[in-house]
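Lab manual, section 2.4: Encoding a predicted structure.

Procedure: take the sequence of the chain (139 residues), apply the prediction step described in section 2.3, and record the output as structure tokens. A sample record is shown.
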Amino acid sequence: MNKSEMNKSEMNKSEMNKSEIKDLERILANEEELQPTTGFSTRVMRAVREEATATPPIAFPWARFLPGFLLNLGLVFGAAVWMILEPDSSSSLVQVIPTEWFSDPQVQGLLWAALTVVGTGAMAWIASRWVAPRGAASF
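Recorded output:
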């Protein structure tokens, strides 16, 4: 593109902008006054009253959440430390579960499910004892 063609395209753009601006000015000058629909103010005021009388949102139960979270964090940290310090589990003095059980997928699933149920129950019991007032524990 040479200079004269570029100047022509720039002039066309500026002319289009001027014509668009004129069209917009004409439309805005002749615009009718907007009127709200019937019942608009009634609906708005009803929504304002409902919002004003609405109950406040329920606060997150941090006191019940933190004990379980900290217990999980401690268990993960403890497991990581144990795996670093005891990389060979066969040298462990106490083996609760025989190592040959780990090769069977059904037993593995059963063990994980049992561990999950026991761990969840323990966390719920600890959280209810820690947070609930004396004599009002739910578990």
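Check your result against the sample. The two ends are 83 Å apart (CA to CA).
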